[in-house]
Amino acid sequence: MKNRVILGISGASGALIGLEIGRILSAMEDVELHVVVTSAARRTIAHEAGTEALGRLIGHADCFHAEADIGASIASGSFHTSGMIVAPCSMRSLAAIASGLTDNLLLRAADVQLKERRRLVLLARETPLHLGHLRNMVSVTEIGAIVMPPVPAFYRKPTSIDEVVSHLAARAVDLLQISSARLAVEWQG
User: Fold this and answer.
1) Are 26 and 60 a contacting pair, CB within 8 Å?
2) What local confidence, expressed as pLDDT, does residue 185 receive?
3) 101 burial class (0-12, 13-18, 19+ CB within 10 angstroms)?
4) What is the DSSP string of the chain?
5) What pLDDT does 189 receive?
6) CA-to-CA distance for 142 and 146, rounded, in angstroms?
7) Any bridge partners for residue 86, and if so which?
8) pLDDT in tens for each of the 189 residues of the chain?
9) What strands lie across the sheet with 31-37, from one edge to the other?
10) Which residues, at least 6 apart from 41, have a Cβ–Cβ distance to it below 8 Å?
């Protein structure tokens, strides 16, 4: 049986990271990729990656779910998954997840991951952070999520945005622990 993985993309800046995670996951033979994109994310993807980028993402997905389809398979705990990544995760989405608000499919799927004690990786995207952001990060961490702000690893001496994006995407996928092979290049000292 394949590892079912959900990729959620919300409207924060950083759509390139979510798109790269989709590409990586779709290339893994043992992964069945489910994707849900918010309406705000559609706008951000078009602005940051071009109008054809969403179509490429949909092409990578085994199943693309509409944000309003609250009855989709990924909205149920009986639909077993190996985890979910939200990349980027807007502060609005983070706050909703922290509060258990599930008014769209991305939020409902994230809530299901938490209630079923499955991996949920949130690439929380905002800067600077105020106390409300930090409290929401603490809240989601306390209920089981992994908060991974997309902070570049400058020790790798990246020479392009693509290198930064690729490393962040690989780190996020590694956090799901669905493969024994590590995707991100490890620090060697």
Assistant:
1) yes
2) 84
3) middle
4) -PEEEEEEE-SSS-HHHHHHHHHHHHH-TTEEEEEEE-HHHHHHHHHHH-TTHHHHHHHH-SEEE-TT-TTSGGGSTTS--SEEEEEEE-HHHHHHHHHT--SSHHHHHHHHHHHTT--EEEEE--SS--HHHHHHHHHHHHTT-EE------GGG---SHHHHHHHHHHHHHHHH---SS--SPPP--
5) 81
6) 9
7) 8, 122
8) 899 999 999 999 999 999 999 999 999 999 999 999 999 999 999 999 999 999 999 999 999 999 999 999 999 999 999 999 999 999 999 999 999 999 999 999 999 999 999 999 999 999 999 999 999 999 999 999 999 999 999 998 999 999 999 999 999 999 999 988 899 988 888
9) 63-65, 31-37, 3-9, 83-89, 120-124, 146-147
10) 9, 10, 11, 15, 18
List residues bridging with 147 in a β-sheet.
122
Tokens of 78: 């009986």
State both tokens at 118. 């499955």
The token pair at 123 is 């690439």
